[in-house]
Amino acid sequence: MAHPDDAEILVxxxxxxxKDLGWELGIVTMTAGDCGSATVAREAIARIRYAEAQSAAAxxxxxxxxxxxxxxxxxxxxxxxxxxxxxxxxxxxxxxxTHSPVDYMLDHEEASRLVRAAAFALAIPNYETRQNPPxxxxxxxxxxxxxxxxxxxxxxxxxxxxxxxxNISKTLPPKREMLSHHASQGEWLRAHHGIDxxxxxxxxxxxxxxxxCGFAYAEGFRQHLGHGYPHEPILQAALKGFLHVRxxxxxx
Length: 252
Ligand SMILES: [Zn+2]
Fold this sequence. Notes:
single chain
């Protein structure tokens, strides 16, 4: 994901299901959130938010890494791609979940493009990341999934419909707890928007997605089905007990 807290907000409930199912999990952010404060200087807030992301990942039981890009400068270029491929090669995942290709913020859209390109590149023998030392080549192109866009909407305010929803009613409490590790963001928003806005806003979005599919709380996903990427429904199969596929017994 682009920033510390994006994974928690967009897919945290699903990650707790996967943890329960025995999956090994990792969270990678493109940046350490260096623009995420109006009062704290860049390097200081980046250090704080890196530690918060580590602590949130530890609560989930996942490892955490940062690709070292800067807020508002997440973009698909060769140098950034080499960094992201190298981080991805260190974990060599079977499944990758990233931002929607269309989202409210360009950092999210560019992170999505970077991850799509990195997933394709990680197993290419001749693709060199030029890091020191470089990570080993990955085994194969991982299955690629997109989370719902932030608030589920494109930049023009239109709903982007997911392919399937995951019921996170049982994992909402740990999702909220995990998000609360990002105290700097909660404090910042509390000061500006009122008490617990941060956690409550995430919960309201999850309830909105839930209302679309008959769950109390949900997260939405789409699978990248382009040529060269795995088409097997790995995530859907693992989460079949929590799944609502759009178009099957549609509730509107
Ligand atoms: Zn973000």
